[in-house]
Amino acid sequence: MMAAVTRGSFTMFRRLLSQQYRRRCFRLQNFRSDRALQPLAFRCDRNLQTFSSRTLYTAVVSRGPVVQFKLSDIGEGIMEVTVKEWYVKEGDKVSQFDSICEVQSDKASVTITSRYDGVIKKLYYDVDATALVGKPLVDIETEFSSEVIQEEDVVETPAMAREEHTHQEIKGHKTQATPAVRRLAMENNIKLSEVVGTGKDGRILKEDILNYLAKQTGAILPPTLFQEIQPPPPAPAAAARPVSTPAAVKPSPATPRPVFTGKDVTEPLKGFHKAMVKTMTAALKIPHFGYCDEVDLSRLVSLRAELKSVTEGRGIKLSYMPFFIKAASLSLLHFPILNASVDEGCQNITYKASHNIGLAMDTSQGLLVPNVKNVQLLSVFEIAQELNRLQTLGAAGQLGTADLSGGTFTLSNIGSIGGTYAKPVILPPEVAIGALGKIQVLPRFDAGGQVVRAHIMNVSWSADHRIIDGATMCRFSNLWREYLENPANMVLDLK
Length: 495
What we know:
Number of helices: 13
Number of strands: 20
Shape: globular
Mean pLDDT: 74
Strand content: 15-25%
Distance between the termini: 58 Å
Helix content: 25-40%
């Protein structure tokens, strides 16, 4: 087959040379009809040599067919997406793996990359329009002649048929990944066989590579990807500014302006809002029961104050959430039923080996719940690193499917906005969720009966009453509270 392709390419090349040679000879004969112009003919001949070579190059690269680039299946049963942003416009030149647009499904945002080198001829959708899987997304005029494209189709048909669902035989098993993901892995010297794929049928996604890189000491990231997950640098010390200067005064938060359009506006639910309708409709079919308690975080407040400067020196912002998440994981080891899932008919229960603890996150796109994978294997500092990464991606609207799927238990930090109690709704197929209120300084009695200042936080739990009883939820909450009220106890159970 390769010999046939070579002969076909050589035939086309010889045909183009012959055409250029005939044109050149015809022009030279016209010049030679007048002997007085012979020197000029020689100069023209040299120019024609240069011109002919340029013309040959143009003929090869500029006359390609227009290919309809269709929106491929992005998995998870998604049939339509919303176009959030175009990175190209009509007339732009693109290369393979260049970003074309960002689309948003009801599960995650996905960046679509080009599979061709060429020029964008047509965009089929406007921003915020709904694009259908399998339908044309853009038209690309490729940089090959139709004859070359046909020959490549013959050679590359097996790979083209796979499209983004390419396979690679590694160590006796097949690894699925897109060309762009393979390229990212190759640039960072990562063996795909060592990466756990979280996509459909075990496919390795871009987020899987990023997660793998983030957990490797000394991993080298490409500059663009490094900017995506790099946490913001620590703020300069307050002592660097004179207290007397106006710059030292903390500006008051901007008051949001009221929205008043003067008329009714109706628009369809899209993206994550549409997903919320589906998820909450399924959630409210679960018989919830609630349990509330308060936690004295005075010792944890002091411990965080001591560790905050250490983590900032490592470029990581330390909040209270890593402690809440780790305490939950340690408690789930004693109450695995809270880290389980049930099937739709509630006939079977699956106890999850991994503690993938989700964090309800308020973003510009709506409510998102990314999760920290395998918390049972992570230290408090590693959890803080992962939270910093998720918060950075969430603020930029770049959370992927891998970050948003696979959760087994959820905490909602509603207190970061306000409020002391909440009634959290379970995210199926999970069976429990907790809502954390704001930390308040309140008077409490110590062991000697004296009134002291205490940092109090309220917690509200919701559980699936079909498989979890109140006593189990209460015991879990008591153990979780014990870890937080005496954080030194966590050291004894850390692995």
